[in-house]
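Researcher: For the annotation table, I need C-alpha cells for ABC transporter permease. Please keep the output clean. Sequence:
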Amino acid sequence: MSVYLLRRLIQAAGVVLAMSIIVFVGVFAIGDPVEILISPDADQMERERAIAALGLDLPLWQQYLIFLGKAVQGDLGRSFVFNEPALELILQRMPATLELAFAATFGAILIGLPLGLYAGLKPNSLASKGIMAGSILGFSLPTFWVGLMLIMVFAVQLGWLPSTGRGETVEILGTRWSFLTWDGLTHLAMPALNLALFKISLVIRLTRAGVRETMLMDYVKFARAKGLSPFRVTFVHVFKNILIPVVTVTGLEFGSTIAFSVVTESIFAWPGMGKLIIDSINVLDRPVIVAYLMIVVLMFITINLVVDLMYSVLDPRVRLDSK
C-alpha cells in the first residue's frame, strides 16, 4: 500500500507540473488584461507603470517561473481586480460550491440507486420502462434549459422556492453553510436538482446494468437455491457487488460537478467558485483563472486516489500493489 501511494503521489506531482504549464500558457493566450483593466484614456507612461506593477512586462517563461516559485509556498498570485490573494478568493467561494456538489451527488445516489435497483430487478415492468425512459431525458435535456424551467415553474409560477442566492447561512469552524437552515435548504433545492439530473440518470443506468449482469452469476443462483430470502439475495449478494462501478463513476462525477458547476451557479446566482471564474474570465483576471484551474486539477487527482483506495474496501479481490 505504501509503495502504491508513493507511486501515485509521484504521478500526481508530474500531472500537476504539466497542467500548470498548459494552464499558464493557455491563459496567457486568451487575451491581454491590460486592455480591460487600464483606462483607454491613460497615457503611455501610466500604462507602462500599470503593466510593470502587474508583472506583465516580463517574458512568459519568467512569469511562469515566478508563479511556480510562489505556488510551492502556497501563493497562487494576486487578483488584478480585487487586489487580494487569488487562493483566498477561491477558498472563500469554495464552501458554496462544495455544498452544491455534495447535495447534487447525494441526491443522485439517493434517487438513482433505488430506481436503478428496481429497474434491474423488474426489467419488464411498466414502472421500470418509465424509469429508463426518464433517464434518457436526464441525459438529453441541457442544464441551462432545465435550470430556467425550474425557476419558471417553482419560483415564478408556484412561488414555492427562491430563484437566486444562497439564503441564510450558519458558521461552523469558520466556514458558512446554508444546508443547516430552512431558508438555505430552499435556496439549495433547485440548483442541486439541476446539477444532479444528469447524474441521477447515470446512476440509474449503471445500477440497472450491474443488477442485470450480477443476477446471472453463479453465486446468486446458488444463494437462491439455498433458500435465502429475496431481500438477502438482493442486498447482500447483488447490491454489494454492483457498488464498485457506481462508486467509481460517482467519484469522478463529483469532481466534474465541482469543476463544471459554472452554468448552474450562473443561472441561480449561486456564490460559488464557478461564478467567480466566469467573472474573472470576463475581466481576464489571470491569477484567479490560473489558481482556479490548478485547484480543480488537485481536486481531480485527490478524488481519483480516494476512489482507487475505496476499491479495496468494497472488493477484497482488488489489490493495490506496486505492479
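Researcher: And a one-line annotation?
Model: The longest helix spans residues 86-121.
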